[in-house]
């Protein structure tokens, strides 16, 4: 820039207009199809628009007066002279204009319009730039190009031209000479003098456009060569190309700006329909409008057809339009009387340009039940080598019949999938489609079988027996790889497992469901688990498979603390076991039924189940079952207050689990040992056990167990006196809980609230502590988790005691004592007694000493050191008879 004064004057004038109009940069830029950054540079004097049409738009949007407009024009002329050292370009088009009429009711695409305007602005006057608008059929490429070009005519003195390469007509690509002749006619060349040879036509066009700044829209380009030949005739201006193909080579050869068009979002889609129908038509049924939008899947062509249907059928309701779409979507998206402008016709062109193998693969892709897929999945589906499938997918992606998503993954647009399904129904035999799905299902089964064998071998062993599959002898995948593979294909695996059996014959989708048991119990949502295992229960025919499916359904309910339904399903599974000889499955049902009873606060009944399980697995020599039974019995011992015995048994089962290479049982034993060691005051041992369990749970992808373990590590830091670290760990557990809330069991949420409350209590943040512990109790009550409910009543009683809320403390202590007596929770009962005794200390009541001494004795018997830290100083207070004590403080 030779002199900044001229640009500063122009920028100052822009700022003055902006302030007077009360505009902000964002809104002013949006209505003028500019980016906020570009307008910011203009207003700061860091850049000057290359075309006056930009200044005109800015003035119009700000409702500038005649005087302001004249001033802006003058200052822009001076600024451009200083920028380029030459006279500015003309502000009107003296050349030919052959653009088609701009589409009525054009909406959305603001970002893309801004990018085109920016490209035009930064293109030097005597140079050319290129934009390539790409996307699937019906996405609105031509509409965007012509809408934008119609508003730019005045910025191109050499003319504004439009030519179509007929890439969307059935008769194929026309000769390039026809396109050249069309352009030459626009520049006044008579038909008699028209060159018939392509090279001559190109040379003539170059002569006519030399030194002229031209805007040209080249529509429906099919090949890079077509684009290069035509674009080479224009040395100045802007070349806008639209194509269903990516034409990536133009970016390398012409520095073309790629402008891929995605589907419109729901808000933009409503805007498109409203522009044609008016808002009144849609206001009566906003929910129905959202369904219309979902049917159209963000495709502008579909949206405009639906809007036109509503306009031409004023009596038709939104609900009726949706019913038509529900019956057959593609038929409802046709312009009756105009077969060339329908969604089906738009897809037909792209489809028929493909060769036979590509067409076949495209049709079969409709069989895939999930949202996306890999080249390997496509190869399995089509029964082709990976290299062949990969090549075909690249061709389909280039034609925008298939979309590329995450690296290495592909997807079909919703309407493209409907189109492919229609084609497959008419062109492929049912046996062909069934074979394709079975091929895909076999591939999914191999993934699930191999990964599950690594992550949860004991659970997979039962699934193998139920499905009759052969076990995998070895696998090279480690736990992280196996988990990543299942996570990546998760939605596809679930979709395949829940696909109705009647859609493809034969099917073994229920095999897939049962193989996913271990993965879904650790990482699936409640809804996913119910859907998958309910489908298996409906489809499975062998009694063994039905029994296993009932077990899986029960497990989902148990993991998500829905104990009533879980107990019902376990009893169904046990009745099925009565019909077959499968003691391992019976043992699993009995064990998990015991876990439900334990969660419901019936440790005595649970112990009976676990004892029966242990006897059964020992009788049949089932090592994995023996380990699980021992862990379960140790859990009962813990709840009943036999802490030292529980810890010893947990550590013993951990050794057995390591010998058996049972990662789930190994981690569970370590977690439980850490929990018990913490109650015994063995914080170092607890920390080591919990850290080991956490590493395994994370490798296995067991989110609920991971949250539980992090919460216990927070409690461990609390008991070590590291309160800041405890808060960090509690926050980490809460963050993971928030991220994984649909997956994680309510028991984990209770644990997080509980430990957060106790840490706040230690920090004398009584208000926060009371809030967290109250929430823990509410969650435990809602889900009927008796042990955690009793435990948190006892903790909340201590917190109220420390805060001086004696009535509230007495209330919650009584609740804890009642639940403890009913269910045999010795430690929790003693905690309640310790609080009740402390409340009575100021009155000097003998009741205080009796309660404290009783609690102290139980804490001594069980080894519960945190309890001894409560009772010992309180008993000393009673013995010293300190009547002035007003607010006794305890330690949780």
Could you describe the 3D structure shown?
InterPro entries: NB-ARC, P-loop_NTPase, TPR-like_helical_dom_sf, TPR_rpt. This protein is mainly α. Among the domains are: 4-84, Orthogonal Bundle (434 Repressor (Amino-terminal Domain)), CATH 1.10.260.40; 110-260, P-loop containing nucleotide triphosphate hydrolases (Rossmann fold, 3-Layer(aba) Sandwich), CATH 3.40.50; 266-343; 356-427, Winged helix-like DNA-binding domain superfamily/Winged helix DNA-binding domain (Arc Repressor Mutant, subunit A, Orthogonal Bundle), CATH 1.10.10; 429-470 and 481-540; 816-892. It is built from 46 helices and eight strands. Strands 2-3-4-1-5 form a five-stranded parallel beta sheet, sandwiched between helices. Helix 32 packs parallel to helix 34 (623-639). The protein is elongated. The model is unreliable at 85-92, 167-173 and 882-892 (pLDDT under 50).
């Amino acid at each position: 820039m030779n002199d900044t004064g001229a640009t500063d004057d122009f920028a100052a004038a822009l700022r003055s207009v902006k302030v007077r109009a009360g505009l902000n940069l964002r809104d002013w830029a949006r209505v003028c199809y500019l980016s906020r950054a570009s307008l910011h540079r203009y207003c700061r004097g860091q850049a000057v628009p290359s075309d006056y049409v930009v200044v005109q738009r800015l003035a119009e949007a700000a409702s500038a007066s005649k005087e302001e407009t004249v001033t802006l024009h003058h200052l822009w002329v001076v600024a451009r002279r200083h920028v380029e050292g030459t006279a500015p370009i003309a502000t009107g088009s003296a050349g030919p204009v052959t653009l088609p009429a701009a589409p009525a009711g054009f909406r959305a695409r603001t970002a893309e319009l801004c990018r085109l305007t920016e490209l035009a602005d930064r293109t030097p006057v005597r140079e050319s730039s290129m934009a390539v608008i790409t996307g699937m059929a019906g996405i609105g490429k031509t509409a965007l190009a012509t809408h934008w070009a119609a508003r730019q005519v005045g910025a191109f003195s050499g003319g504004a031209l439009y030519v179509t390469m007929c890439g969307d007509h059935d008769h194929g690509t026309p000769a390039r000479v026809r396109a050249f002749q069309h352009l030459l006619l626009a520049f006044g060349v008579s038909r008699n003098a028209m060159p018939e040879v392509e090279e001559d036509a190109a040379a003539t066009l170059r002569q006519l456009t030399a030194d002229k700044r031209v805007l040209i829209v080249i529509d429906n380009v099919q090949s890079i060569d077509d684009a290069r030949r035509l674009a080479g005739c224009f040395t100045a201006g802007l070349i806008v190309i639209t194509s269903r193909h990516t034409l990536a080579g133009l970016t390398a050869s012409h520095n073309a700006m790629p402008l891929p068009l995605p589907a419109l979002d729901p808000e933009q889609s409503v805007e498109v329909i409203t522009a044609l129908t008016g808002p009144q038509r849609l206001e009566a049924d906003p929910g129905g409008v959202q369904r219309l939008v979902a049917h159209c899947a963000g495709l502008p062509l579909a949206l405009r057809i639906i809007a036109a249907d509503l306009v031409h059928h004023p009596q038709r309701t939104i609900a009726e339009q949706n019913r038509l779409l529900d019956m057959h979507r593609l038929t409802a998206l046709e312009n009756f009387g105009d077969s060339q402008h329908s969604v089906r016709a738009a897809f037909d062109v792209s489809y028929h340009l493909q060769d036979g193998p590509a067409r076949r693969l495209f049709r079969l892709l409709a069989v895939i039940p999930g949202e996306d897929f890999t080249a390997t999945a496509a190869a399995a589906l089509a029964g082709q080598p990976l290299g062949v499938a990969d090549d075909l997918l690249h061709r389909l992606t280039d034609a925008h019949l298939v979309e590329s998503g995450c690296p290495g993954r592909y997807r079909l647009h919703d309407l493209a999938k409907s189109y492919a399904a229609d084609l497959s129904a008419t062109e492929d035999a049912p046996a062909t489609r069934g074979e394709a799905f079975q091929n895909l299902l076999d591939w999914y089964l191999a993934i699930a079988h191999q990964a599950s064998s690594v992550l949860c071998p004991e659970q997979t062993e039962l699934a193998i027996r139920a499905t009759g599959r052969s076990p995998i002898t070895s696998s090279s995948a480690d736990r992280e790889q196996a988990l990543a593979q299942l996570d990546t294909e998760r939605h596809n695996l679930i979709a395949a497992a829940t696909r109705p059996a009647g859609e493809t014959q034969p099917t073994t989708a229920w095999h897939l469901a049962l193989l996913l048991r271990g993965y879904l119990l650790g990482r699936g949502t409640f809804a996913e688990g119910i859907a998958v295992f309910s489908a298996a229960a409906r489809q499975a025919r062998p009694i063994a498979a039905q029994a296993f499916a009932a077990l899986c359904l029960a497990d989902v309910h148990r993991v998500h603390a829905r104990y009533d339904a879980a107990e019902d399903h376990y009893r169904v599974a046990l009745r099925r076991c009565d019909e077959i000889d499968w003691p391992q499955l019976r043992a699993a049902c009995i064990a998990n039924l015991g876990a439900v009873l334990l969660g419901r606060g019936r440790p005595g009944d649970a112990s009976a189940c676990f004892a029966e399980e242990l006897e059964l697995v020992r009788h049949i020599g089932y090592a994995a079952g023996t380990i699980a039974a021992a862990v379960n019995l140790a859990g009962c011992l813990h709840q009943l207050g036999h802490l030292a015995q529980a810890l010893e048994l947990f550590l013993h089962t951990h050794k057995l689990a390591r010998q058996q290479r049972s990662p789930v049982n190994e981690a569970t034993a370590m977690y439980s040992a850490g929990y018990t060691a913490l109650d015994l005051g063995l914080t170092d041992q607890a920390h080591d056990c919990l850290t080991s369990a956490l590493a395994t749970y994370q490798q296995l992808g067991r989110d609920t167990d991971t949250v539980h373990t992090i919460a216990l590590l927070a409690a461990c830091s609390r008991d070590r006196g590291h309160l800041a670290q405890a808060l960090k760990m509690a926050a980490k557990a809460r963050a993971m809980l928030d991220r994984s809330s649909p997956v994680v069991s309510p028991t984990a949420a209770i644990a997080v609230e509980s430990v957060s409350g106790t840490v706040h209590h230690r920090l004398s943040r009584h208000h926060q502590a009371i809030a967290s512990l109250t929430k823990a109790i509410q969650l435990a009550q809602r889900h009927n988790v008796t042990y955690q409910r009793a435990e948190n009543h006892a903790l909340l009683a201590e917190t109220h005691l420390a805060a001086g809320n004696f009535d509230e403390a007495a209330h919650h202590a009584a609740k804890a004592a009642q639940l403890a007596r009913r269910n045999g929770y010795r430690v929790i009962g003693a905690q309640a007694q310790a609080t009740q005794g402390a409340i009575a200390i100021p009155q000097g009541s003998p009741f205080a000493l009796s309660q404290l001494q009783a609690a102290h004795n139980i804490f001594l018997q069980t080894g519960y050191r945190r309890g001894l830290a409560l009772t010992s100083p309180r008993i000393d207070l009673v013995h010293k008879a300190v009547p002035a004590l007003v607010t006794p403080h305890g330690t949780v």
